[in-house]
Design a protein that fits this description.
3 helices, rod-shaped, alpha+beta, about 15% strand, about 55% helix
Length: about 170
């Protein structure tokens, strides 16, 4: 008797297992297929737009960071005193020193314009106290036309410390 009873239980467990597997298979391959397709059709455009926005934002951030770096280096270059032109008159720095500082900033920006085109504005009105440089750069987007600005701007100023005759010890 025991063998028949355990045989019947194993048949019942086997039948229950088969029913469970059949139910799981029907759930996965039955009426839910349309729901998955709807989710893919709705979510795919949002994921695509999100990916494009993320790529464009990172390109914009990189261009802005580069513009700030070029502006900072150009302002430090302009703030360095030219020993031949450091003679001052009653108004502070000589006009030649201001022009020379402005030219040093423009020269540095021009030297950095490889693949990227930079344009600069240099303010030497406070020279020798400080030099301010604004650099504009165009952004080359992989996916254009998504509302991101085509031109980014970076501004920096530098001041030469008094009494420093050699080395790169500038505030900026």
């Amino acid at each position: 008797m025991k063998s028949g009873c355990s045989n019947r239980r194993s048949r019942q467990l086997s039948l229950a297992t088969k029913n469970l597997v059949r139910h799981l298979v029907n759930v996965r391959t039955g009426a839910d297929r349309g729901d998955v397709m709807l989710w893919v059709v709705v979510a795919a455009p949002f994921l695509l737009v999100g990916t494009i926005a993320l790529v464009s934002a990172s390109e914009n951030w990189e261009a802005r960071r580069e513009a700030h770096a070029v502006a900072a280096a150009a302002s430090r270059s302009a703030a360095q005193a030219d020993p031949l032109l450091t003679r001052t008159n009653n108004s502070g720095a000589s006009p030649d020193a201001r022009t020379s500082a402005q030219q040093r900033a423009f020269d540095y920006v021009a030297s950095q314009s490889g693949d990227t085109s930079y344009s600069a504005t240099v303010d030497v009105s406070e020279y020798p106290n400080s030099v301010s440089v604004t650099v504009e750069s165009t952004v080359d987007y992989t996916f254009s036309g998504f509302g991101m600005p085509l031109v980014v701007r970076g501004t920096a100023s530098a001041t030469a410390l008094e009494g420093v005759t050699d080395g790169e010890q500038f505030e900026g």
